[in-house]
Amino acid sequence: MPAPPSPSSPQGKLYAKIPERGPGGFDGQLLAFAEELREEGMAVGTSELLDAFAALTEISWTVSADFKEALAATLAKSPEDRHTFELVFDRFFFRAAEAEAARWEISEAAVGQSGQSLELDLDALRQQIAAALRDGSDAAMRDLARLAIAAFGRGEGSGVLGVDVQRIRRALGLRTEPQPDLPVDDPRRDGVPREQLRRFEQHLRRELERALIERTASLPPKRPLTDLDRALPSGPIQDLAAVHRVVAQLKRRLASQGHEQKGRNRHAHVDVRRTMRASLQTGGVPIELKYRPRRPRRPEIFVLCDVSTSVTSASTFFLSVLHALHDSFRKLRSFVFIERISEVTDVFERERDFRAASEAVSRDAGVADISGYTDYGRVWTEFLTEIEDELHPRATVIVLGDARTNGRPPRDDVFAAITAKAGRTFWLNPEPKLYWNYGDSVISAYAEHCTAFECWNTDGLSAFVDALMNDRRETR
Amino acid sequence: MRRVSLSGGAAHAPEPMTTTVPEPQSVAEVADGLRGAGYLPGESTALVSFLASKLGKPVLVEGPAGVGKTELAKALSRYLDRTLVRLQCYEGLDEAKALYEWNYRKQLLRIQTEAGDAGWQDVQDDIFGEEFLLPRPLMTAIASEEPVVLLIDEIDKTDQEFEAMLLELLSDFQISIPELGRIEARTQPVVLLTSNNTRELTEALKRRCLYLWLDYPDIEHELQIVRLHSPELDEQVARRLVEIVNQVRELDLKKPPSIAESIDWARALLLLGANDIDADVFRQTMSVIVKHRTDLDTVAERVGVKLDPAADARPAA
Fold this sequence. Notes:
By secondary structure, chain A is of the alpha/beta class. Chain A is built from 19 helices and 6 strands.
């Protein structure tokens, strides 16, 4: 950060005491911040806010890291909330500071002008940036991002931030992969760490945005966090570990939910035999009643999973969910389908390793015939003829798919026949509800016969797991 | 309900707080103190610990296994020079094991020795007295004369009913015993709850706590931790070790190596007298940080190969 243009500037005041600008002063700003957190779906109660204010009186909140951590510790109470908090915090305080700067007409142009006359040694700058990326110093990165914009960015801005960021990155020659043709002592030679590069790009984006606000003296409309910021990771390889963490949590939840019932449903049938035996201790008077233990029903589950290309990103996730379910339910039969259906129960039982299992599924299942497009009608018919006799009222059928028939007949009558035979049917759709029934999606035809869930982030998934568990409790 | 004060000895009047360590006044002080107690805190760790002692609120610490959640409580107790009272949670933990229990045998004996001549009311007052109470960890922490550090470890292992029971304790630092009355804390304990995030804790519990998310530390921080625990290890080797552990964590493993495992590995390397981590050393000692058969294969395939001198063309770091 360069020094404020003149000692009399209001910026000096900003750092000296609680700013009184804006409605309600500093307290008002904090409340507005909490309101934004609530808008993003975090449960920020009054008691949390009181804690936040109490915490802020204890720390020196002019240290931005302390200020942020104190707020986070009191307001964000789960890893997901923490993630949202970071995003909203950056957005809110960046905008608040910029709005203030615009109001006071503070600009960094004066400083920039004197910098312009300085001849920047571009090669040295490239080296310095790469070195800062390697060492991971945040403050140095921000300063260098400003220099980089001064050197490569100004003047010919395209107006689209993302484009400018990428152009500057290319001009700096920053790549994640090693560049063996560079000299040995160049820090870029072994490639730049991916995570650091991402952070540097963030700095670039932020500084560009700041410059834009300065030029136009107005704030662009705030960008709400999209659900995609919080969506399930869908990249096939590097995010597999992240998918697994979600599933691992689901698995433990499945396991612990069975136990929860132990305490709650104790008032059940009296076990006469055990009561009589216990009464021997008290001379035949049945003082202590013994109850028949309730064993959680392990329902028989049939899972049908779409693995066609339209749901590629989701099927990785679905397959790992399938894999997780296999450990939690004793009787689980899994099927994958595209144009035809194929049972893969064996594969999952044999392979304890998820990676091997998914490879085996894509290699051996033979579910694509010619086109590789999903044919729901044919799948239902095949499933019904193959499994009909084994479906019974206590069976649960779970379908994972986007219900896009590619124009082929949906055959919801056959699907209805399946749901009639089975006790319960759930449909998990990896598409957001917004896209349901658009184009060739026929989810509403199927949803008449089953319960459909949108399941493209962890929230949807846990809603489904809750439904699965609660329903099990009621139907018993 | 009566207000009761439990006493360990003869003195009944609550004594003034006598702490040898004064209340910390700044975040930096806490950070230094923890460092002095052999724990290298991250920025947020020191801050939240400071807030906990200032605001008197319990802290909920979450994070993957082996990032030093329990260790933090131990270090805090060392730093503040307080006794650590630990309650290890497990499935089926109930009030009798966590709070208090009536010493049933002693009560029986008492009744038998009195046999007959005392009235019911007297006997009842008598046998539901302090003398017949067996304090469990939570009660011990509350009734202690000296301020303590209370660690409720792996709270996510218990069921929700137990959590509900904790609420009174965490917000008011008091326990109600129907027969005896209310027991209030005389001193403000520092309370830490840890969770591995295996189940969603209730909103009510979270609302009463400050939240601290501990994650794997970055390379420099972890290097410092390893160096702190095995200072004899050559710095180059230590750096290499931490880098490798970081690479291993990025893989999709059943159980990624924790900080504790990095430290163990450093010790193992010291014992072996290794002065570099090459492919051979790695293969031999890999089992210190990776503890699943399938994980071993993955790690050997993805990381071990890179350490091969033939493949390792780049100059030594």
